[in-house]
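Worked Example 4.2. Consider the chain below.
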Amino acid sequence: MTHQPATSSHLSRRNLLKSALATAALAGVSSSYAAGPAAAPATQPHADPWLGLKVGITTYTFKQRPLEPTIAAIKRVGLSYVSIKDFHLPLKSTAAERKEVAQKFKAAGITPMSCGVISLKGTEKENRQAFDYARDAGIPTIVCSPTPAMLPDLDKLVKEYDIRIAIHNHGPEDKIFPSPNEVWAAVEKLDPRMGLCIDVGHSFRAGVDPAAAIRKYKDRLFDLHFKDNDSNDPKAKPVEVGRGVMDIRGMLQALIDIRYQYEFSFEFEKDMDDPLPGLAESVGFTKGVLSTMKA
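Applying the procedure from the previous section yields the following structure tokens:
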């Protein structure tokens, strides 16, 4: 696939907005991850700068950082929701440890809304342990990557635990669930608590329009990983939101139009040894785009 270049006027508007937002977003953000007072938020034209979206982050972004610095970094960029990866809450933790970690996020003003990605490819006992993990931490959605053969068993578990699963698509390299289309085909006749986690970057690499997929599968869209890519090639690389070629505004408009109420997670996979500056720029750019939109 070949990317068609944007017009010069589009690039000019994008670059001006990106520059202003990056400056604002990065103010007061230190790559040291030290806790400290966040910069005062810029004045927003809306009472809620996120227009009703529950915007958070996957802690996979901070997979090289311990729990406490991760919580501090999430606070620094002003996000209030989280999808917890097992780097920060091991699957083999005890019920008490799960409750303790969930409470640490809540005490910082960050609500855990999902966990994962968890494979859910094991035995019935192993899969049940993942549901225990989510239940103990008070997490309503498991983002997962099962095999089709496991889906009947998972159908039983979502009924028993009343916990949703959201199957994550992983792009062209994933021979089972490369895009949301394959996920939908697998779950559409199963329990309505079995749905999708649309990874917009991987969907784009798989040749699927993420905004169209958001609209098409809105009834089972239980989690979303938000990012930008440097091209529409299957081997595209992640970049700061706003620096790539993806239709950021179109995806945001789709989420607003469907009144999306589940977690919207930034997943920043560039510069993972020091992701905070790029994440801050991504958050700032997205907030800026939303400031020009209506709920």
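The chain is about 40% helix and 15% strand. The chain has a mean pLDDT of 89. Compare this with Example 4.1 before moving on.
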